[in-house]
Write a structure and sequence with these properties.
Elements lengths: L5 H10 L1 H13 L8 H11 L5 E4 L6 E6 L2 E11 L26 H16 L6 E9 L7 H7 L13 E10 L7 E3 L2 E4 L2 E9 L3 E2 L9 H19 L6 E10 L5 E2 L2 E10 L2 H21 L3 E10 L2 E3 L1 H15 L4 E3 L10 H5 L4 E7 L25 H15 L5
Parallel strand pairs: 3-4, 3-5, 5-16, 6-15
Antiparallel strand pairs: 1-2, 2-4, 6-16, 7-14, 8-12, 8-13, 9-11, 10-12
């Protein structure tokens, strides 16, 4: 594989950057939600047209699975990009801003998709360097709909029946404008947190606002529960295996002179180990129920399990870091010191096969870190020049994993 050099791969990625950016901007203007992304799917299929791929579309979602066979047999590796947007407004002022009211690509999935299409073009030109199969997954539904789990149910990792091996290794990239542009970060072990939905309904007794002693006001009790949850996190959870409990919405009452019967709290529980996840669920239930009971009320607690912890396989993470150092050098390769408390449904795939996710920095030039609009912001923008690094990294991960058999 003498022709495979960092400079050659970077040059090839640079050569397709204009097309990658054009695709990303087109997807950005036409975002779609959850598992049903018909326009996005059609646009990606159009961009892949003409490449030597065996393409299959999802049955329960508008996913695309495209296999590229190398010139020699070998393992199958998975490269994944997510495609869905978020239900929120865009206020970036970009000339290619979303044309769909209340929907925005504010997490960079448009960039992930465009980068993987670019990598498919590089890999198609280097089939002679591949001993095995590269499976490309373009996945809907990462933002809460669990599209990765649906893809697994549809046989994502399985052999195809023509003698090709099942997927044995997986890799994904997530862009981040919070990280300097072009920097690649990865770590072994927990990379992203689990994310579970929390709903608490405090039931008291309604009455007139002038006579609270004749009612049993759930609002101060709900506030007490919020405070108690934060105390539990800071005093009962090891700071080195963190938990984040966030109450993001409080709803109670209908007017200013009526004490309501109920108050509702909605939020999330995030952890980076299964043990702390179990402890957090039990702790939240115990605190809410007993604080309410102390005030002669009832707290009904519902916890809906969300995505599990995203855990990078140790050898896979080191392989990705080695590839990043080979591609962009030591200065732009970072071993992340801690997990990020966001969540990812790529976790479902990493629960099945060894693999890793890496972060790609896309901070716009000249923007100080404290002024960056992060992922999920209505003003999130990214440095599109960094997408060339993502294209090359996707391709390099596959090429170095499926190098020629001696």
């Amino acid at each position: 594989m003498e022709s495979l050099s960092p400079s050659a791969l970077a040059s090839e990625a640079g050569a397709v950057l204009d097309d990658v950016v054009a695709l990303r901007r087109d997807l950005h203007q036409h975002p779609e939600l959850a598992l049903d992304l018909p326009r996005t799917q059609a646009r990606v299929l159009e961009a892949l047209d003409g490449l030597p791929l065996r393409v299959a579309k999802g049955r329960r979602q508008t996913s695309i699975v495209a296999d590229l066979d190398g010139d020699r047999p070998g393992p199958t590796v998975l490269l994944r990009a997510d495609m869905d947007a978020l239900p929120m407004p865009e206020d970036t002022g970009l000339e290619y801003a979303s044309q769909v009211a209340g929907v925005m690509h504010s997490c960079g999935h448009d960039a992930h998709t465009a980068m993987l299409v670019g990598a498919a073009r590089l890999l198609a030109d280097r089939r002679a360097d591949l001993a095995g199969t590269v499976r490309l997954l373009f996945q809907p539904g990462e933002e809460g709909a669990g599209g990765a789990a649906v893809a697994l149910d549809e046989g994502l990792l399985a052999a195809d029946g023509d003698g090709r091996e099942p997927v044995s290794w997986a890799f994904a990239i997530h862009q981040s404008p919070s990280i300097p542009s072009g920097l690649v970060g990865c770590k072994a072990g927990a990379l992203l947190a689990s994310a579970d939905e929390l709903y608490i309904r405090v039931r008291g007794r309604g009455g007139h606002a002038s006579m609270p002693h004749h009612a049993n006001d759930p609002i101060p009790v709900a506030c007490e529960i919020v405070q108690a949850l934060q105390t539990w996190v800071t005093r009962r959870v090891d700071v080195f295996t963190p938990a984040v409990v966030t109450v993001a919405r409080i709803r109670a009452g209908s007017t200013s002179n009526v004490i309501p019967e109920t108050a509702s709290l909605d939020g999330t529980i995030r952890t980076v180990t299964a043990r702390v996840r179990d402890d957090a669920h039990a702790g939240v239930r115990r605190i809410a129920e007993h604080v309410a009971k102390a005030h002669d009320m009832v707290a009904e607690v519902t916890i809906a399990d969300g995505y599990p912890v995203t855990v990078n396989d140790g050898p896979a993470a080191e392989e990705v870091l080695d590839t990043a150092r080979w591609l962009v050098g030591d200065r732009l390769t970072v071993v992340l010191p801690t997990p990020v408390m966001g969540a990812e449904d790529f976790s479902y795939i990493l629960n099945q096969v060894p693999g890793a996710m890496a972060f790609l920095g896309t901070r716009p030039p000249g923007v100080p870190p404290e002024e960056v609009a992060p992922n999920h912001s209505n003003r999130m923008v990214l440095d599109e020049d960094a997408l060339a690094t993502g294209v090359a990294l996707y391709a390099a991960a596959a090429l170095r994993h499926l190098g020629p058999v001696a």
